[in-house]
């Protein structure tokens, strides 16, 4: 096997320290025997010698001759005297210009032939794409560091001849053969053009990344926070340092690690001690706090887009180039990711016709949007918009008109209203809501100067979600989204969408209606209105709301069976209703819940409930359970102390209103510290169950605070519970957070209240929690408002708190709290080892007392 610059004897001492020893053993094997390409196909047992190289002019031929001679001397290219005996597999070789340079690069076209027929398929076709898929790092780490350290010093470095360092196993080297100038050769190292080359190289680069980080931490005893984490993208390494730090230190750490392993850094591409640097197509400026796409880069992308649109067709390579460049641009224009989908679809479709194919109408539309946007946009995006430069826009739409205003909700600075044309009146409400947003931005954006954050308040959940994510399923609305995002890019507006909560009066009326029985209920109960009022409120409002829906569903089902009066229900009707649930794909728990609610209605009306106790019905329900099953519900994940601290750090950037930010911060801290349910601190209408400012009492030295909880899930009759939260010297201190929202407030005011007197309802509480989780890079789907209570129990158990204390802190009356305590697989494995295998060498005693004898 060819001997490369990466020697096992140099790597072994470092690989022994790597945390993942399985990965380390694989790298050792690759260094000892060479890497396998991951090929599995017919070329394993066949050769291919008759191939035509890519077109080359005289300069290209001269370049290729020089490179072949150099690589023969290096030993990374071998001459093959008997290619048939070696079963050499040749692929076309060619020369292409390096991007943005006058130099040339040798490539091996391992993807030819693309079309299968009488000829054997290409080498790349035999490498499973899922096996070599790789996800590279982004610029998020360095950009976050720049935001926190204005004026940071940037650095980057590039490995020289990156792929050439990785030697290929002898058995796979024959798959990389070439035929040039009457001679046959085989490559012994990774080459450009191999499907698995980036993946295989990245394995070694990942280890270099780890060793560099380890070296940097060793050089920076006690000052590691003054340098960002090292990042890498293939063979590019980059990072940033605080301006008070020693700038060359990270580059020195990378150089030491690379030299120790046998890599070499390119001196021409190594830069440090600068505040402005282009990294992965994006130019970062730590002083101006901007990320931008340079004018030259935008012009190159525009030329590619215009050339494709003028011809109306494109090759696979051209589409890959455009999509690749625009993918980098979306790092500066995040919402642009939504307008790459059709380009990616075109790339996949062009694999079937790589040498040219007409572009679709959808692809052309996206290219037109990018062309118009890049021509009108200067390519600059602010990394850290000023929190003081925030504009608020409130919009709404109906089937006849749209409108909106700019400024405070109650004291707008400007407003507009416009009647819709007839062609828009029949369109989807999502389109109309988005049209209102676009019209508001067109009218108000010219009134603002400079970069600023624009908060758009809408009352449509789909539009709010679409503006936040960048896309929506409705094609007509997506067209408006393109215009909205292009306008925001041109005006340097950082768009943030928020859903408007319904007014307080609405919730008050709704709750009042829940507490007042409908006239039909009063008549059916045969009681006086006052007695019916008490009977109606014998169940919680939420239970009543669900049971009304179920009651109507049962009546509709009975009508389908030609039953005029289904009350009281017969066992046969209930059995057929269960069968209807099964046909509708309902779960076992849904059947049990609906039967319980229907029985409750019989109790309300004074009807016989004997049908619900029928043994035949009980057996049908048990059969439903056997057929469908009854899987446990997916439990929500806990919010433990480390995650809580991340949420609080993300909160200021997620919640733009300082008043609301303080409220959510206090709610998060108190929910965790006091094991609270979401319903115990949120409210929709002011009432006796709501926490007020007077519910909180602080100790004289503020070492703790007590909270008088008026009611709760297990205390519906308002006996009251007193909770205690202790002060802690951390940013998650509940005492400090409560003191910040209680100062200078009337004792009768709600403890948690949003700006403008808006209710602190469960919907806004959970929505803000999910926004903060997304900002932390955590998927919010597995969390809920109950995650704070679950997380407090889990964190307490992880810190050795006994079960009785956890039960008391969480106000549990039984051992049901144990299902809230999440234990990791490592903890359960450790318990299994200590309990079952601790005394493995004990002798066999057949007379040992058994459990049955005790």
Automatic annotation (TrEMBL):
Q: Which residues form the Reverse transcriptase domain?
A: 77-284
| Annotated GO biological process | DNA integration; DNA recombination
The answer on whether this UniProt entry bears the keyword Hydrolase reads yes
InterPro entries, from UniProt? DNA/RNA_pol_sf, DNA_brk_join_enz, Hepadnavirus_pol/RT, Integrase-like_cat_sf, Integrase_catalytic, Integrase_recombinase_N, Rev_trsase/Diguanyl_cyclase, RT_dom
- Domain of life, per lineage: Eukaryota
**Which positions are tagged coiled coil?**
none
Q: Name one Pfam family in it.
A: Phage_integrase
Keyword DNA-binding recorded? yes
Q: Which residues cross the membrane?
A: none
**MF terms in GO:** DNA binding; endonuclease activity; hydrolase activity; RNA-directed DNA polymerase activity
- Keywords from the named record: DNA recombination, DNA-binding, Endonuclease, Hydrolase, Nuclease, Nucleotidyltransferase, RNA-directed DNA polymerase, Transferase
What is this protein identified as? Reverse transcriptase domain-containing protein
Query: What organism is recorded for this protein?
Result: Ustilago bromivora
């Amino acid at each position: 096997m060819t001997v490369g610059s990466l020697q096992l004897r140099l790597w072994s001492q470092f690989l022994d320290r790597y945390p993942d020893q399985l990965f380390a053993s694989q790298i050792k094997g690759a260094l000892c025997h060479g890497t396998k390409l991951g090929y599995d196909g017919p070329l394993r047992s066949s050769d291919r010698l008759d191939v035509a190289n890519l077109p080359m002019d005289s300069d290209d031929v001269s370049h290729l001759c020089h490179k072949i001679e150099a690589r023969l001397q290096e030993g990374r290219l071998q001459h093959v005297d008997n290619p048939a005996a070696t079963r050499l597999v040749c692929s076309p070789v060619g020369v292409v210009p390096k991007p943005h340079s006058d130099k040339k690069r040798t490539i091996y076209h391992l993807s030819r032939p693309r079309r299968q027929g009488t000829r054997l398929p290409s080498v790349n076709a035999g490498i499973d794409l899922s096996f070599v898929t790789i996800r590279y790092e982004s610029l998020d780490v360095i950009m976050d560091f720049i935001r926190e350290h204005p004026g940071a010093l940037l650095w980057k470095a590039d490995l020289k001849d990156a792929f050439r360092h990785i030697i290929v196993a002898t058995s796979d080297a024959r798959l990389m053969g070439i035929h040039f100038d009457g001679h046959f050769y085989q490559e012994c190292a990774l080459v450009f053009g191999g499907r698995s080359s980036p993946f295989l190289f990245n394995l070694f680069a990942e280890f270099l990344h780890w060793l560099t980080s380890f070296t940097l931490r060793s050089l920076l005893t006690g000052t590691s926070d003054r340098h960002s984490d090292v990042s890498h993208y293939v063979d590019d390494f980059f990072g940033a340092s605080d301006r008070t730090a020693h700038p060359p230190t990270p580059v020195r750490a990378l150089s030491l690690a690379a030299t120790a392993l046998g890599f070499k850094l390119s001196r021409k591409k190594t830069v440090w001690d600068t505040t402005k640097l282009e990294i992965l197509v994006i130019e970062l400026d730590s002083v101006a706090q901007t990320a931008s796409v340079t004018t030259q880069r935008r012009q190159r992308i525009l030329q590619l887009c215009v050339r494709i649109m003028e011809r109306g067709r494109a090759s696979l390579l051209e589409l890959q180039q455009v999509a690749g460049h625009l993918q980098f641009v979306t790092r500066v224009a995040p919402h642009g990711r939504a307008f790459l989908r059709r380009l990616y679809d075109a790339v996949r479709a062009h694999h079937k016709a790589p040498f040219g194919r007409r572009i679709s109408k959808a692809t052309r539309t996206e290219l037109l949007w990018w062309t118009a946007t890049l021509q009108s946009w200067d390519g600059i995006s602010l990394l850290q918009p000023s929190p003081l430069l925030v504009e608020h826009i409130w919009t709404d739409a109906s089937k006849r008109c749209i409108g909106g205003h700019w400024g405070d909700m109650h004291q707008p600075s400007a407003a507009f209203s416009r009647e819709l044309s007839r062609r828009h009146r029949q369109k989807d409400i999502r389109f109309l809501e988005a049209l209102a947003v676009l019209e508001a931005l067109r009218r108000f954006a010219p009134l603002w100067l400079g970069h600023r954050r624009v908060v758009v308040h809408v009352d449509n959940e789909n539009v709010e979600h679409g503006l936040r994510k960048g896309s929506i399923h409705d094609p007509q609305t997506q067209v408006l989204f393109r215009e909205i995002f292009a306008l925001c890019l041109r005006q340097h507006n950082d768009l943030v969408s928020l859903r408007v909560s319904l007014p307080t009066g609405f919730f008050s009326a709704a709750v009042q209606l829940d507490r007042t029985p409908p006239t039909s209920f009063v008549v059916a109960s045969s009681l006086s209105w006052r007695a019916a009022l008490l009977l109606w409120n014998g169940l919680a409002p939420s239970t009543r709301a669900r049971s009304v829906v179920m009651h109507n569903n049962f009546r509709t089902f009975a009508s389908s069976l030609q039953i005029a009066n289904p009350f009281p229900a017969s066992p046969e009707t209930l059995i057929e209703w269960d069968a209807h649930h099964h046909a509708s794909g309902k779960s076992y728990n849904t059947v049990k819940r609906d039967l319980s609610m229907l029985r409750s209605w019989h109790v309300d009306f004074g009807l016989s409930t004997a049908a619900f106790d029928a043994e035949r019905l009980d057996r049908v329900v048990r059969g439903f359970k056997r057929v469908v099953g009854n899987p446990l519900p997916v439990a929500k994940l806990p919010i433990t102390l480390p995650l809580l601290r991340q949420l609080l750090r993300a909160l200021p950037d997620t919640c733009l209103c300082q008043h609301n930010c303080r409220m959510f911060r206090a709610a998060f801290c108190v929910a965790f510290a006091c094991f609270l349910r979401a319903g115990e601190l949120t409210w929709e209408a002011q009432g006796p169950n709501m926490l007020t400012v007077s519910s909180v009492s602080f100790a004289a030295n503020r070492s703790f605070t007590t909270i008088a909880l008026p009611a709760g899930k297990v205390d519906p009759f308002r006996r009251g519970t007193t909770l205690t939260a202790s002060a802690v010297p951390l940013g998650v201190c509940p005492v400090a957070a409560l003191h910040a929202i209680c100062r200078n407030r009337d004792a009768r005011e709600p403890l948690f209240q949003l700006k403008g007197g808006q209710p602190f309802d469960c919907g806004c509480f959970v929505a803000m929690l999910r926004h903060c989780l997304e900002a932390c890079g955590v998927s919010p789907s597995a969390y809920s408002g109950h995650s704070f209570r679950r997380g407090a129990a889990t964190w307490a158990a992880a810190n050795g708190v006994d079960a009785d204390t956890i039960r008391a802190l969480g106000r549990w009356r039984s051992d049901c709290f144990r299902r809230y305590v999440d234990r990791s697989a490592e903890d359960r494995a450790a318990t299994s080892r200590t309990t079952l295998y601790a005394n493995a060498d004990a002798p066999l005693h057949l007379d040992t007392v058994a459990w049955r004898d005790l």
